[in-house]
Amino acid sequence: MYQSTKQFGHDLGISCAFRQWGATHSHCSKIHGYAIAFKFTFETDELDERNWVQDFGGLKDLKQVLMHTFDHKLVIAIDDPQREAIEKLHEAGIADVVIVPSVGCEAFAKLGYDIAMTVLALDKQTRVRLVSVEVKEHGANSALYFGDK
Predict the structure, then answer these.
(1) Domain total for the chain?
(2) What is the pLDDT at residue 147?
(3) Which residue range forms the structural domain that includes residue 108?
(4) Considering the entire predicted model, what is its pTM?
(5) In sequence order, what are the beta bridge partners of 32?
């Protein structure tokens, strides 16, 4: 079994703001943000003709979708009770609002996984498997999502 990882790190500056509206007893219920980082772990039983698990040069589209989804965006959950008010910021040109199923490191890790599976067209028939996606808010906080086992 071989594994390799690809990181789109904090140095890339994928800066987004979000709020976890359900965290009513925490400051996380307020709009706040981070330069988030993504780490993708790939695996395979057989290396390709170049002796690689994953061609990192083939991840440009993945990076582009991540940037489009998160970079300089205000990311909110579809069920945010203030969604209508926040969407007005988008309509007024004050914020680029992106609506996702849910927010937070754990949710962003799953979303990153789902995006990668779609963009890279990975399925059970491909040589390369996506094992996990880790999202880091900063050096102290991260969350991982592991795909279907």
Answers:
(1) 1
(2) 85
(3) 2-146
(4) 0.93
(5) 18
